[in-house]
Amino acid sequence: MAAVEANPVERNPELSPVAPLAPVTIDRPVRTDLETSIPKPYMVRGLVAVDMDHPDGTPGRNHHDNGIIYPWETYAGLRKLGFNIVVSLLLALFINVGLSYPTLPGWFPSLLFPIYISNIHRAKHGSASETYDREGRYSPVNFENMFSKYGRTCPDKLTLRELWDMTEGNREVFDFFGWIANKVEWGALYVLASDQDGLLSKEAIRRCYDGSLFEYCAKMQMQPQAKID
């Protein structure tokens, strides 16, 4: 029988991510086994969102569009995802008004509030999980660490309380906008994609990062009525 390869951290204690005098490094553990499934897990990805169960990302996922998102397109997408008219309208305004100007190719604002995907990295706020880096690339290790740090109930799902703890743990000093934006974004995703047990799955979150959340929700046969009545 072939011997099981020992974890590098077990072979070399100096690689341990735990600092005994810093209890938070014990309370929020990070994964040390990512390389068993994900090739080069510390290398950011530009086109796919990978995890331990999907080392190649979402099969058949394409990235063809015109690269511009207008408020009415955001609204239509939210409606398709199951939000009611009022919530879809408010979220569309919040998203496009907040993200439009930083992503514009010029200095003059547009009253149509378009979001240019080519410049979406400029709209990244603080107090986030850093699953996206400053240039908008996807980081597998930071994605997996969300669950190792905060997934206490299930290893591949998060409760509403755990989501709250995560947003609190990611807070940066005096970043008031980031605090609010982070909670609004995760709250919206929880309302949309949580299951009947009140848990937000790892796969739903991964699909949110790669843009295939709508296909995922349809495949899982979510309730046809709006998530918020």
What features would you highlight for this structure?
229 residues, mainly alpha, two-stranded antiparallel ribbon, two-stranded antiparallel sheet, 9 helices, 4 strands, disordered C terminus, peroxidase, oxidoreductase, Caleosin-related, plant seed peroxygenase activity, transmembrane helix
Structure write-up:
- This protein has about 230 residues and is mostly helical.
- Helices cover about 40% and strands about 5% of the residues.
- The chain has 9 helices and 4 strands.
- It has helices at about 10, 25, 70-80, 85-105, 140-150, 160-170, 175-195, 200-210, 215-220; strands at about 70, 115, 155-160, 200.
- The strands form 2 sheets. The protein has a two-stranded antiparallel ribbon with strand order 1-2.
- Helix 6 packs antiparallel against helix 7 (about 175-195).
- The longest helix is centred in the middle third of the chain and has 19 residues, at about 85-105.
- It is globular and about 60 Å long.
- It starts with 7 loop residues before the first helix and ends in a 10-residue tail after the last helix.
- Residues about 225-229 have low confidence and may be disordered.
